Amino acid sequence: MAGADPVLTDASVRCVLIVTDSTDRDEVVRDLVTRSVPVTRVVVVHQNGAAADELGAALADARVGWRFVVVGAEASVGRIRSRIVDAGAIDAEIVVLSTEEPDVRSMRRRDVFCGHCHVVTGATTAVDGTVDCSGCGSNLTVYYHYSRRHAAFLGFRADAEDLP
């Protein structure tokens, strides 16, 4: 996970907060911690939301000079990154390390933002696949556009071009 090296080896960084989506990533996290120069904190946020309070407390403690490394599956790193940005961090302070190969055509857990009712639906799908929106019930085509703000791919009605 060489993408985090500039953060881990920068002596001017006061603290590195490593956030991961699963204890399955323990080996990766241990490697990041051992390579980290500054003091490091680790928070594990499970899919069911466990440790969300711990992440909230860590973000409340964050100050200038902190950096954030997010490790996990595509869908969860996007949500965690979005939460860190909402807490006031900027892009330059965040490193995202996805444990999945970047393949939009593969079937995997993705969040899809409905362009019609603005609800985010979680589903196992590929980009260009379809998903039923959990908000308005529309059949959505999953588009390549990924919103870092919503941590989701854009979905639009599959029949949008057929409507009068």
- Going across the biggest sheet, name each strand in turn: 6-5-9-8-7
- Give the N-terminus to C-terminus distance in angstroms: 50 Å
Order of helices and strands: HEHEHEHEEEEEE
Runs in which pLDDT lies below 50 for 5 or more consecutive residues are: none
Q: Count up the helices.
A: 4
Question: How many extended strands?
Answer: 9
Largest sheet: 5 strands, mixed
- Tell me, what's the shape? elongated
Q: How many domains in all? A: 2
Mean pLDDT: 85
InterPro entries: DmmA-like_C
Pfam families: DmmA-like_C (PF22289)
Protein name: Dimethylamine monooxygenase subunit DmmA-like C-terminal domain-containing protein
Describe the structure in brief.
This protein has 164 residues and is of the alpha/beta class.
Could you list some keywords that capture this structure?
single chain; 164 residues; alpha/beta; 2 domains; five-stranded mixed sheet; four-stranded parallel sheet; 4 helices
Could you explain the architecture of this structure?
By secondary structure, the protein is an alpha/beta fold. The chain has helices at residues 5-8, 26-35, 52-61, 74-86, and strands spanning 15-20, 39-44, 66-72, 94-98, 108-114, 120-125, 130-132, 139-147, 152-157. It folds into 2 domains: 13-98; 108-156, no CATH class. It has a 5-stranded mixed sheet with strand order 6-5-9-8-7. A 4-stranded parallel sheet has the order 2-1-3-4, sandwiched between helices. Helix 2 (26-35) links the parallel strand 1 (15-20) and strand 2 (39-44). This is Dimethylamine monooxygenase subunit DmmA-like C-terminal domain-containing protein. Residues 112-155 form the Dimethylamine monooxygenase subunit DmmA-like C-terminal domain.
